[in-house]
Amino acid sequence: MHAFNFYKGFIPNQPSFFGTRFFNWGLGSITRVNNSSARAHLSQRLEAELERLKMFFGLGLELKVVWKPSPDGALSGEVKNNLIYVYEVDEEKAVDTLRHEFLDYCLSQAIEPYKEVTNRLIRMINDDAYRRKGL
Fold first, then answer.
1. Please, which residues have CB within 8 angstroms of residue 30's CB and are 6 or more apart in sequence?
2. Partner residues linked to 80 by β-bridges
3. Quick check: is 89 in a domain?
4. Which of 10, 23, 31, 34 could make an SS bond with 4 (beta carbons 3.0 to 4.6 A apart)?
5. Residue 110 and residue 29: Cα distance in Å, rounded?
6. How far apart are CA 95 and CA 17, in angstroms?
């Protein structure tokens, strides 16, 4: 048992005010990790989370995730061409954004056939109304 288990922040892989992005919990000591290591860690975490979501729901198998942090915060994430772009800088917000975008994509795919049928029905009704108007 680790000597610091009473404090959440000293348990490896647990969020704390130190932030898992900036510290590596090696053999009982705290060492600073470089930014590229933190980026690789978050990218790997997002990829692992996406794979977990795919397996759990059995959907979105064609999706991939790209982490492109944007500090301006105008957009948290989006899906384009089977790529989920996550723009959040914070690790937990990035994971939440990935989950949101994944579920949004799956729901959009599920309602697409109904949207097509509805649009065709509207077109048919409009065409019928136009024909009747001409008589």
1. 18, 23, 24
2. 83
3. yes
4. 10
5. 49
6. 18
Q: Give the integer Cα–Cα distance in Å for 2 and 30.
A: 14
Q: Residue 25 has which token pair?
A: 């919990």
Measured CA to CA in angstroms, residue 58 lies from 12, 100, 107 at distances of: 31, 16, 13
In this structure, are 64 and 26 located in the same domain? no
| pTM exceeding 0.70 | no
Domain assignment present for 90: yes
How many folded domains does the chain comprise?
2
Same domain, 50 and 87: yes
| Sequence-ordered strand ranges (E) for 6-53 | 23-26, 29-32
Regions in the chain scoring below 50 on pLDDT: 1-33
CA distance 89 to 71: 6
Contact in structure between 63 and 43 (CB atoms under 8 Å):
no
Domain that holds residue 11: 1-33
